[in-house]
Amino acid sequence: MSNVVRHTDRVAALLAARILSGTWAEGDKFPPDTELCAEFNVSRTVIREALRLLGGKGLIEAVPRRGTHVANRQNWALWDADVLNWLNNNDISDKKYDLSSDALDMRLALEPTLAALAAARADTDANAALQEALRAVQQTPDTAHEQAFLEAFYRAAGNDFAIAALPLTAFALSHRATALPLEAYRRLTAAIAQKDGAGARQAVLQAILSA
């Protein structure tokens, strides 16, 4: 990775932290490039690339003759993996900017439907992948294996849009303080294999609500 890319990623993360924590509020104007260059000890190219990165994720917007401002929250790409990673790396005390409970809400809205779809659609390969992922997370109950299990579950639903939600799910998992719900995952896997939609929905709800 080039020095420019490393510096760009570092500066983008630091600027994003100020936005996502509420230090810089919606509508606040960014300091001039020269000031940012001096603060972070980087070139104007790095600053411009960092701002381009933040703009692509909806965190900032440039208005002709008005400069660069923090964008409205409704424009933030909160499902983006980088944005979720930046959120995870911030110590956010303001409840307005703590989105962990919102992420849990989205899992509750999404996963019961995916469970029913998986029970209806999962083929032999999908069931085999899910069972293999279950065995792996049972043997090594850590976050990485849990995420792999949930990816197999999402894929079993046969809906490509569901895969886009995996970064949000990973973000929600990172905020859980309880043990992995292995028994609920076992029941979910069995219900999908048995094409038991109601059982699959119940099992996934148990898994989420145990967080």
UniProtKB/TrEMBL annotation:
Coiled-coil regions listed? none
Q: Which residue ranges does the record assign to the HTH gntR-type domain?
A: 5-73
Say if the entry is tagged with keyword Acetylation: no
Q: Where is the signal peptide?
A: none
The terms under GO molecular function for this entry are: DNA binding; DNA-binding transcription factor activity
InterPro entries, per the entry: GntR_C, TF_FadR/GntR_C, Tscrpt_reg_HTH_GntR, WH-like_DNA-bd_sf, WH_DNA-bd_sf
Keywords from UniProt, A to Z, are: DNA-binding, Transcription, Transcription regulation
Name under which the protein is recorded:
FadR family transcriptional regulator
Taxonomy-wise, where does this protein's organism fall, top ranks first?
Answer: Bacteria, Pseudomonadati, Pseudomonadota, Alphaproteobacteria, PS1 clade
